[in-house]
Give the backbone structure.
Amino acid sequence: MSVFSKVYRLVQNIPKGKVVTYGQIARLTGTNPRVVGYALHRNPDPKNIPCHRVVDKNGRLALNYAFGGWREQKRKLLSEGVKFKTGMGVDLNLCLFIPRRQRG
DNA sequence: CTCTTGACCATGT
DNA sequence: AACATGGCCAAGA
């Protein structure tokens, strides 16, 4: 089981209307945030892996979102009901999803 | 194995 | 706030 596969599996668990940070995924998969970003860049199945629900630690979107840029990522999030605090940043207080493993 | 590429994060100036 | 730097580590050529 590769690290990438673990990342993809976690991303699939993110419910609609919620987001998760790169750092969270990194901790759960035992790697670092860069690798998470790299894995998402190489997302093999964007239809089943909602990689648009991943944001950085400040809730900001990825400039290099691989499927249309951050504008497209924002459109998808808005259509799911995610609230934005700034032009590029979501409101983590409302939309941050905390996976089971991390809740402890 | 070496080298490059990265959708990050923390810190310093 | 903007910019630069170092650390972290997986995958592909």
Remarks:
- The mean pLDDT of chain A is 92.
- The beta strands of chain A are 20-21, 54-55.
